[in-house]
Amino acid sequence: MTLIDVLAFTWFCLCYFGYAWAVRYGPLKSRRGLVAAVNDRRAQWMETALRRDIRIMDAQLLTSLSSGNAFFASTSVLVLGGLAAMLGAVDNVKTRLEQLPFISDTPLVLWEFKILFLMMLMIVSFFSFAWAFRLTHYVGTMFGALPLQSEAYTEEAQAHARKTAELVGLSGRHLNSGLRTIYFAMAGLAWFVSPILF
Question: How far apart (Å, rounded) are the C-alpha atoms in residues 97 and 180?
Fold first, then answer.
């Protein structure tokens, strides 16, 4: 691995972990961005659902959230399988891709490392999506236990709605984490072209 590859990989790790930290604990946590606005809407959604007598639409929304998480989890597994196949035929893949004029000549060991690196990112994204999917099942249970419309204005009902909204928000946070990992993995593809692009 050349110095430029080491620097590129280090820069990637700093960006990936640094951004995740900044969003979760650092200066970006307190910013009123899209995530905060959506969390406010989630709380409003649960408070409104409390006052609805028929909650079929809300159940359909929860099903949609769950399906989206399952889709991304299965997509991560498919990409992981493709990368595993690529790792199994790395000699052939390397030979063919390096015939392209914009792909840099790289040792075989580094090709294997790059593929393993992308596989690791796909594993992380899969577990983020799978956990978000699991959380939507917990949300479904909490939603099913929402008090009746006649009890909507009690403190207990309001607290239950808040906790349900927080759980939906937690599921959304893990979904965002998985998506962010996929975006970084897409940036990682540039490493096959050149460490400078990466």
Answer: 27
Tokens of 164: 């349900």
pLDDT of residue 78: 96
Range with lowest mean pLDDT among 1-10, 63-72, 114-123:
1-10
Instruction: Determine contact, residues 121/191, Cβ cutoff 8 Å.
Output: no
Please give the C-alpha separations between residue 70 and each of 35, 74, 79, in angstroms, as whole numbers.
21, 6, 14
Ordered by start, the domain boundaries in the chain are: 3-193
For residue 83, pLDDT over 90 is answered with yes
Tell me which residue of 164, 172, 144 sits closest to 56, measured CA to CA. 144
**Residue 130, both tokens:** 């799978």
Convert the pLDDT of each residue in 101-156 to its tens digit: 877 778 888 889 999 999 999 999 999 999 999 999 999 998 888 888 888 788 88
pTM of the model: 0.85
- What are the helix (H) ranges across 25-88? 34-51, 56-88
Contact between 193 and 86 (Cβ < 8 Å) = no
Cα 186 to Cα 77: distance, rounded to the nearest angstrom = 15
Any idea how long the chain is?
198
Are 80 and 129 within 8 A, CB to CB? Answer: no
